[in-house]
Amino acid sequence: MEPDHVDEIISAWRVEMPEIAGLPLELAKRTALLVSAFDLTAAAALEKLHLTQAEYGVLATLRRVGAPYRLKPTDLTHALLLSSGGTSNVIKRLVAAGYVTREADAEDGRSSWVELSPLGVKTAEEAVRATTAAHARLVSRMPDATARALSEHLRAALAAVEEGVLIHR
């Protein structure tokens, strides 16, 4: 296989600090570049819908939980790995845009529910379709067998490293 940009990085580190230039660094760099490619592709699709990645995260999370498409802000914070302040800011923007509503929890006066509005459901579905299509375009650039093998290898890698590391399912 042809050398890639990561091979160049590893070669440079082999000269400067050979003790760090190995498989862990190769995996970290290649994984980071792959994540970046997916994120940039999704961001371009979301920009057309005037959504940020964080706004998309909230809309998609609420949509995937099913009707009535609602969660408590703390559940959104945990699901999205955002800070509570970050989640609150995103929710405020989504309320202002008419994508979500916020109502007090009748059983717990200290808590509230965040729920997709009908416009929010429509927008969430449009955004999920747009990002999925963008990701599919990336994946289509590799042979199907490679994509399937990569998915299975990533599943095994995640299972091996999840314990003791903050990775949210």
TrEMBL record:
PANTHER family xrefs: TRANSCRIPTIONAL REGULATOR, MARR FAMILY, TRANSCRIPTIONAL REGULATORY PROTEIN
Domain of life: Bacteria
Protein name stated in the entry: MarR family transcriptional regulator
GO BP of this protein: response to stress
Coiled coil: none
Domain called HTH marR-type: residue spans: 17-163
InterPro entries: HTH_MarR-typ, MarR/SlyA-like, WH-like_DNA-bd_sf, WH_DNA-bd_sf
GO molecular function, one term: DNA-binding transcription factor activity
Organism: Streptomyces actinomycinicus
